[in-house]
Amino acid sequence: MRIAFYPPMKPPDHPVPSGDRTMARLLIAALERAGHDVVLASQFRSWDSDDERRRVRLAALGGRLARRALRQIQRHPERRPSLWFTYHLYHKAPDYLGPRVAAALGIPYVVTEASYAAKHGDTGANAAVAAALACADAVVGLNRADRAGVLPLLADPARWIDLPPFIDTAPWRAARRERGSARRLLAERHDLNAEAPWLIAVAMMRRGDKLRSYTTLAAGLARLLPRRWRLLVAGAGPAQAEVRALFAPFAGRIAWLGELTPPALAAALAASDIFVWPAVNEAYGLALLEAQAAGLAAVVGAAGGIPDIVADGVTGRLVPPGDADTIAAALASLLDDPALSRRWGEAAAERMARLHDLAPAAERLDGIVQSLTRRGAR
User: Fold this and answer.
1) How open is the CA angle 260-264-269, to the nearest 5 degrees?
2) 221 near 288, Cβ under 8 Å?
3) How many CB atoms lie within 10 A of CB 234?
4) Closest by Cα among 293, 288, 261 to 177
5) Which of 330, 239, 234, 351 is nearest to 278 (CA)?
6) Which of 52, 225, 265, 269 could link 294 by a cystine bridge, Cβ 3.0 to 4.6 Å?
């Protein structure tokens, strides 16, 4: 079927890498894998930063674009979609197009990854999010932490459908097979002790929650100075100077990898031993999915939907987000037991391929959209 795909936050061809852009691409890939014709409905970005005048202008522009889209479909009936699919709806990125177009065409309106928080009020962009959710025929949830806020807005609670977050695990599984050569190369390039356990953290360096996570990680590692770990850090961003300052006491133990291409990141993850991240206010984290697919044990904060990815005591250890003491204790147990770390990593790779891969996600999404189009918009 023809599916109109719309990400109000950021289009999938946006030049700035992000987890949001990656997930949009993965959803398109999953729908196409299931045999659907996915077309980008619009590149209009509704994102705003709490500027009411800007929001009003964006809402008006969204309405005009919706009307234009309907006129184009009227002139070119072959472009008529069977379903509208919006990705990532929240108070800073409402959908001003999808509800209008879907209602006018009488087609199902689907939202994937939506969140709603009453603290942002019942006017403006947050009201637009609530209105979109009220008319959604299905809300596909990638993060179970969003469920409580979204359910009261749905016409029927059964319209919430869980979908485990996913990636294409193939590149990460392939990287595992080249672990030895990747580890030797990184050891030479960054003067790392290849015999020491390697921890790895992957995150943008931004102020706010990301910087708080880096601060917690540095505090946790300070408690592990007697052990001989090394830390690889993949990421860059405007808070890079602050992040580097946090880890200055560990000079000689840190390898700053910068922002990596997907193949380079896969190699770095596969070469490492333990993925670690405090995950302050994280949704679920694509980097965690990638690390688990690459066969790494994980020590990570139990925020958002992360407990749906890491099986505590099976593929990693969940800790309270932002708690340096418990992060240090969990890392210490794995550093002291390399065999346990390897077992958890192997279990993580198997679990990812079974539950969080592109193939099962494509099958699940196909079932959702096929069911909705058979039933029609409600």
Assistant:
1) 100
2) no
3) 21
4) 293
5) 330
6) 269
Nearest to 297 by CA among 316, 278, 318: 316
State the pairing for strand pair 274-277/198-202. Answer: parallel
CA atoms in the 13 A half-sphere facing the CB of 62: 24
CA dist list (Å): 314 to 168, 290, 297, 342? 22, 17, 9, 11
Distance set, CA 65 to CA 46, 70, 71 (Å): 12, 9, 10
Picking from 289, 287, 341, the residue whose alpha carbon sits closest to that of residue 313 is 341
Pull the structure tokens for residue 215.
Answer: 């601060």
* Under 8 Å between Cβ of 298 and 315: yes
Contact 137, 110 (CB under 8 A): yes
Percent helix, strand, coil in the chain (nearest 5)?
Answer: 50, 15, 35
Per-residue confidence (pLDDT) for residue 232, from 0 to 100: 98
Q: How far apart are CA 239 and CA 247, in angstroms?
A: 13
Averaged over 322-332, what is the pLDDT?
A: 96
Return the beta strands (E) in the chain as ranges: 2-6, 37-40, 83-89, 109-114, 138-141, 160-162, 198-202, 230-234, 254-258, 274-277, 297-301, 316-319
| Alpha carbon distance 14, 193 (integer Å) | 38
Residue 107 has φ and ψ, to the nearest 5°, of -115, 160
What's this model's pTM, rounded to 2 decimal places?
Answer: 0.91
Residue that is written with structure tokens 């080249």 in the block: 178
Cα 125–126–128 angle (5° rounding)?
65
- Output the six-digit token pair for 72: 């184009």
Under 8 Å between Cβ of 155 and 123 = no
d(CA 359, CA 340): 29
- Which H or E run includes 148? helix 147-150
Alpha carbons 229 and 89: distance in angstroms, whole number: 40
- Indicate if the pLDDT at residue 375 is higher than 90: no
Alpha carbon 81 to chain centroid, angstroms: 27
DSSP-derived 3-state class of residue 295: coil
